[in-house]
Amino acid sequence: MRSSKDEREALADFAARYMVPSTDVVQEVERKVIGAVWGAIGFTTVAQADLIAERLDLTPEKLLMDVGTGRGWPGLYLAKRTGCEIVLSDLPIEGLQHALGRAEAESVTPLGAVVASARNLPFEKNSVDAIVHTDVLC
Fold first, then answer.
1. How would you class 48 by CB atoms within 10 Å of its CB: exposed for 0-12, middle for 13-18, buried for 19 or more?
2. pTM score, whole prediction
3. Whether residue 60 has a cis bond before it, omega within 30° of 0
4. Angle at the Cα of 103 from the Cα atoms of 52 and 17, rounded to 5 degrees
5. Buried b (16+ CB within 10 A) or exposed e, 3-37
6. For 12-29, what is each residue's pLDDT tens digit?
């Protein structure tokens, strides 16, 4: 499936955003608002991520897909907190590269990282137990 004009524009925009290093001010805002520093572009809080883990009943036996992974928040946090397996997916490879670096820092080993649009994910139906896509418009 071909990417849409909106996807191409979002890809270029987010690829550029991932190249800009985070500042101390941005990290402090993130710490105060989100409760953690991940270089996140969204605003899902730690408390909301904990609620997501509870609602999805994430356990070490579950496989979570993080659609629109970005730098890995909150998917990698959920995997570390619950022990669930995780697959990362996003359109800009630059975000996935950041997420894989963060996964290593958090001692989380994703089952995979896939460059793909949320409109056209290369996975079989029912191949994951849960999906998270916070701060993502699909």
1. middle
2. 0.87
3. no
4. 85
5. eeeeeeebbeebeeebeeeeeeeeeeebeeebeee
6. 887 788 788 888 998 998
Alpha helices in the chain (DSSP H): 5-18, 24-33, 46-55, 75-82, 93-105
Spell out the residues 6+ positions from residue 18 whose beta carbon is closer than 8 angstroms to its own. Answer: 71, 92, 94, 95, 97, 98
Q: Do 72 and 99 form a contact (C-beta atoms < 8 A)?
A: yes
How confident is the model over 68-80, as pLDDT tens digits? Answer: 999 999 999 999 9
Measured over the CA atoms of residue 117, residue 95, residue 34 and residue 77, the dihedral's sign is positive
Coil, helix or strand for 18?
Answer: helix
